[in-house]
Amino acid sequence: MKGAEYISDAQNTWCPGCGNFVIQHTIKDVLAECGLLPEKVVMVSGIGCHAKIADYMQTNSFYSIHGRGIPVATGIHLGNPELTVICSAGDGDAYAEGLDHLIFAAKRNVDITVIIHDNRVYGLTTGQYTPTSPLGFAGKSTPEGTYEDPFNPLDLMLASGATFIARSYSRDKKGMAGVLKRAIQHKGFSFVEVLQVCASFYDAHACYDEHVYTPEGHDPSNRDSAERLIREWNYAGEGAIPLGVLYERDAPTFGERVLAGKEGEIDRTRIIERAIGKR
Amino acid sequence: MNDYSICIGGKAGEGINKAGLLIGRLLGLLGYHVYMYYDYPSLIRGGHNFAILRCADHEIGAMCGKPDIVCALDQETVNRHGDGALLIYDADVAKGEGIGIPATTIIREEGGAPIARNTILIGAFCRAAGIPQEILRGAITNEFGKRAEENLRLALRGYHAGEERMQIPIQKNESLPLLTGNDAIALGLIRGGLDAYVSYPMTPSSSILHTMADLAQGTPLLVLHPENEIAVITMALGLSYAGKRVAVGTSGGGFCLMNEGVSLAGMAEQPVVIVMAMRPGPSTGMPTYSSQGDLNFVLHAGHGEFPRIVIAPGTTEEAYEWSARAMHLAWQFQVPVFVLSDKNLGEHPKSTEIDPAFPVPVASVRSPRGTYARYCNTPDGISPFYPPPLTGNVVKVNSYTHDDSGITTEDPGQAAAHAVKLIRKGATIENEMVNYGCIRVDGAEEAPVALICFGSTGEACREIGDRLSLRVIRPIVLEPFPLAQFADALAGVEQMIVVEENATGQLDSLLRGYGIVADRRIANVSGRPFHLDELELKVKGVMQ
User: Fold this and answer.
1) Can you tell me the distance from the alpha carbon of B470 to that of B448, in angstroms, rounded to the nearest whole number?
2) Architecture of B178-351 per CATH?
3) Distance CA B344, CA A135 (A)
4) In this complex, do A55 and B237 lie within 8 Å of one another by their Cβ atoms?
5) ipTM over 0.95
6) How many CA atoms lie less than 13 Å away from B177 in the CB half-sphere?
């Protein structure tokens, strides 16, 4: 199937220069390259600029509500593990409103791919700070600058037990394609943070262009070196920003554990008779 | 008429619930209909717990008044419940007038666990009430399984230490299983086609989760306990989208968290059954007591306008049958369907007869033709739903106002069409519900005075209806309100008395919205169910 067939007819309303275009087209290319048919893929999104991807992809989709894409994606995966579930979330979405679900999906190792469109600003609500905005970020809700430091979501994911942690950059399509392909193929919870340019409210591309790099010879299965790379940049200063698959390990998935022995038909009458017999 | 009440009480952690169930089994084996009220504060050790077992030769579902027999494991039980009753008590720890049994001493002599003191008192109760030893043996074997022998030894020590004071006569009825409303809801959901149950523990809904998790072992039934109620309902909607039939369960505070998910279910037209078990609020309220204070909340939960079905069963049998129907209705109409329960229905065991093969209607299925549009606009407002994968098609569901194919729209014409489609679906549901008996009428069916109630207060009202020759009208379905059926039931009524367990009269105001104005209202906000004797006095007090 051609890549273009993964794009729907819906009118696109992202701003010119928005990093979401690159993310969308990279997903499309990776799906085509992996031979994943639109009918076998479910795009799940929350609410925010990122979330419009549910409309814009000609795949199955569940356009859910703010912060809740991940539990919806978890339910879809458990309901039919044959489907490839990709959950797009924003930084406000997954790091603020729905942070608990992100941590639990990592803890459980749910076999879904979560892509965080991290532009470090609320775009759709026209410019407020998010959990990854730098200290002092002056937005519409914090005109004198924020009073809190950002957190490092990759570090949080490592601590939460994520089995695949990667970072990409919306101006590095080729690198992103490699990361997304591995993320989709990874068995278990894949966390991909994309540093995304917000053309209207937080265009940090000059900073990113200068600081991003792909570490040479990094072994993602080495937790210590993964942790060093993950902590190299704390979302505040101007440190070097490593890209690529930073951590990966193999572990049983939530679906494998939960669904073991759950095949077949439910003998409802027997369950009910057995229950009544005990009472 | 044979009608007895037995109370057993002690501290939390002394096995009062289990002891109550054992007495329930004894009375069931004697051929009685049994109802058990269990009163416990929200703590794990200490406090005062008690169970009241009522048994009668006719169907019952409420407490009567003062107990005839009291089994006391502590002084508190003697003081609170002992007055005027035949008292059986542990003479090692309490003082009283009645049959003192040295239960603590017996435990020491037999090397039994302290929690088994209740078994000794139950042995003494059997002797006092003239219950044959074989029945005691049968009940203990059923209740304790592998640990039956040691418990039987203790019970017989109590039996021989006691004395016969009265005779609870044996009835001819066969012994029925003792089911709580929560048991019945769990079994009904399974009967109705449940594939997955998702819930976060919250009293008084938790025992549905526990029962479901127990029953699911070794079967394909999926039971999930996620991080919070927001995850519960959104995960459930994901399962629903993937083609699983799913239900969730919670109580007031947890349901607050679920509200955005309820609204999502309404907009996305993703079916789900929500069991909402009421307890007194606001906020944490009284976790282990009962209330009917969340009727309005459930009727209006979730922002925006969308159709829903709200069902309030009043008996364990109804809980079973209507939970099964709830599953069918949710998937037939792709709407959130509520089973509105409370602690009094959910946690009190009652002799219950259910049909394990209870027939549930089969949903009509239309085959997809051409390009699939998830929300295609149909005359009845119901768009055929197919879970992905659908060969050559995509299934797009959306929380935004959307077009037929599920793509977001803000076009005024499409927005209006979408809203009207949901309203049309509501009308279709209303028409369909005419085929169900949505109203139950009990008592003297032609009487000019009617008690109007819903949910768990129904059983107390039914018995008062019988005692005072009143009509008792109880809507089981509260939304869409079965107006025509209700009007039929009301024919010839001259005085309407609404009975409900809330302060503001929520059923009363629901009826007013349909132009049905009650004459008097009886409220109870104690967290405890109506006792029959108390309710009788109140009803007499407001009757003209």
Assistant:
1) 7
2) 3-Layer(aba) Sandwich (3.40)
3) 53
4) no
5) yes
6) 19
User: Which one, of B341, B408, B334, lies nearest residue B378 by Cα?
Assistant: B334
The CATH homologous superfamily to which domain B3-161 belongs is Pyruvate-ferredoxin oxidoreductase, PFOR, domain III (3.40.920.10)
Residues of chain B with Cβ-Cβ distance to A266 below 8 Å are: 190, 195, 219-221
A 87-106 residues inside an 8 A Cβ radius of B: 100-101, 104
pLDDT tens, residue order, chain B (544 aa): 899 999 999 999 999 999 999 999 999 999 999 999 999 998 888 889 999 999 999 999 999 989 999 999 999 999 999 999 999 999 999 999 999 999 999 999 999 999 999 999 999 999 999 999 999 999 999 889 889 999 999 999 999 999 999 999 999 888 999 999 999 999 999 999 999 999 999 999 999 999 999 999 999 999 999 999 999 999 999 999 999 999 999 999 999 999 999 999 999 999 999 999 999 999 999 999 999 999 999 999 999 999 999 999 999 999 999 999 999 999 999 999 999 999 999 999 999 999 999 999 887 777 777 899 999 999 999 999 999 999 999 999 999 999 999 999 999 999 999 999 999 999 999 999 999 999 999 999 999 999 999 999 999 999 999 999 999 999 999 999 999 999 999 999 999 999 999 999 999 999 999 999 999 999 999 999 999 999 999 999 999 6
How far is it between the farthest Cα atoms of chain B? Answer: 83
* The model's pTM: 0.97
State how many domains chain A has.
Answer: 1
List, edge to edge, every strand of the sheet that includes B196-199.
B222-224, B196-199, B246-251, B272-278, B336-342, B309-311, B477-479
Which of A38, A75, A100 faces B242 most closely, judged by CB atoms?
A75
Neighbours of B72 (CB within 10 A): 29
HSE (CB half, 13 Å, CA atoms) of A64?
37
Concatenating the DSSP letter of every residue in B357-397 gives T---PPPP-----SS--TT---TTS-----PSPBTTB--EE
Residue B3's DSSP bridge partners are B56
Amino acid identity for residue A49 in this structure: C
CB B242 to CB A267 under 8 A?
no
Distance set, CA B516 to CA A250, B311, B410, B460, B492 (Å): 65, 20, 40, 23, 14
Looking at the partner chain, which of A10, A38, A279 has a beta carbon nearest the beta carbon of B178? A279
Q: How many whole angstroms separate alpha carbon B520 and alpha carbon B280? A: 23
Contacts of B142 (CB under 8 A, 6+ apart): B25
Structure tokens at B269: 């037209």
Amino acid present at A81: P
Q: Do A272 and B244 touch (CB under 8 A)?
A: no
Distance from CA of A71 to the nearest CA of B (A): 5
Nearest Cβ partner for A62 among B193, B220, B238: B238
**What's at B58, amino acid-wise?**
H
Q: Which residues contact B524 (CB under 8 A, 6 or more apart)?
A: B500, B501, B530
Tell me the CATH number at A126: 3.40.50.970
Give the C-alpha separation, B120 to B158, whole Å: 4
Bridge partners, B443 (sequence order):
B471
Residue A89, helix vs strand vs coil: strand
- Reported CATH class of domain B439-542: alpha beta
What's the rounded Cα separation, in Å, for the pair B96 and B456?
35
Q: Where are the alpha helices (DSSP H) in B60-132?
A: 75-81, 103-110, 117-128
Q: Which domain holds residue A210?
A: 3-278
Dihedral sign from CA coordinates of B106, B108, B111, B114 = positive
Q: Do domains B3-161 and B178-351 have the same CATH topology?
A: no
